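A quick word before the example. In earlier lectures we treated sequence and structure as two separate objects. From today on, think of them as two lines of the same record. Here is FAD/FMN-containing dehydrogenase written that way.
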Amino acid sequence: MSQPYTVQDEISLPGFAGTVHLPGEASYEELRRSLNPRVDARPALVAEAYGVADLRGALLAARQHGVPFAVQATGHGTHEACDGGVLVRTSPMASVLVDPDRRIARVGPGALWGEVVAAAAPFGLAPLSGSSPSVGVTGYTLGGGLGWLARKHGFAADSVVRAEVLLADGRHVVASADSHPELFWALRGGGGGFGVVTSLEFRLHPVERVFSGFAYFPIEAAAETLTAYRSWIEDAPDEISTAVVLRRMPDDAPEAVRGRHVVMVKVVHAGEAEEARRLLAPLWRAAGPALLDETRPSTYAATSMGGTPNRHMDMFETVPDEVIGTLVRAAEHAQTVEIRHWGGAMARPGQDAGPVSHRGTKLSVIVDTVVPGLAEELRPYANGGTFLNFLADPARTAAAFASGDFRRLREVKRAYDPDGFFRVGHVAR
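And the structure line, produced from the sequence above:
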């Protein structure tokens, strides 16, 4: 039998089979960190879990000692420190199983999107994955999941068919349309404040090849490109997902754009290359001759679009000239300003869809730098919403949901976690 791990004779994890990392150890310093530079967590310990029994043991120990409890796979979605508490890393629980006949994937809580994409690709299937293969599947999906196939197939949360969940009292339950349906509804976009998801099952889609990549144009065409983009998206079919990015290119970029300030168009088209080029031609004409065009046919598995770190986000139904002018000016102070097209299947949820809200949004703006005055300039034109995956402030969780959905989320929270044990990060308080 395993011996209990003890931290300062206060927190013990009896029977814990995983590895525990304590303050002062190099591994603790590495594993306590998130990818959010503003979060400098100092948990009492970091525990690497190898199975449900480990997760339950860590959870019950945190309950017994009255300390915070948090789960972290990659740290992409960590927005609040678990100071003095039990931080569980689920990276060892990274199983990925694909059922090609049912077009279903089942993953553990430590699985990454790159692993799911690779497992599904031999069958000509694709998940509704995010911008980076290194992002954790579970946290991304619980927060909604806006991927580059979302205009065609919806949010990642919409594809979930089943979840196994460790509740605050240590019970392990199955959430699906037929079992704990209110919990199942909440998990599909309501975040992770209802329990620890120990496995997730979701639909895969028949997408093998795409037309994807980046094209770069002179920054002097920024206003003209955004004006054209505003009109172009009105007729864009669901198969094509795009973003216009105003970006200062790094010194390790290709020579044609190295160190330059550019307009970058990002595109993923779930269709033929010839059709994609025809659709994109008006944008290319508005932006002017390309400095560099890296768009090309590719497998979905080889497509990695990258993301923009979020220091500011707004959502819009349209972008009037005033907003375009503001974004062009903001790009003079920021490394990256990304304007992304939403709509399509995201705006057409099924009757049983989860609480992902603001589905009518047409465009989002993400800026990777705090630009003084930007929020105030954009506020009169934005729709006031935000998206849970992109929201860094847990005090604003309610802004990610329609008011009725948030009330319902709070009811589910009271039913499944009545004493508010899960309180670190985005929680329906």
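Notice the following. DSSP finds eleven helices and 19 strands in the chain. We will return to this example when we discuss secondary structure assignment.
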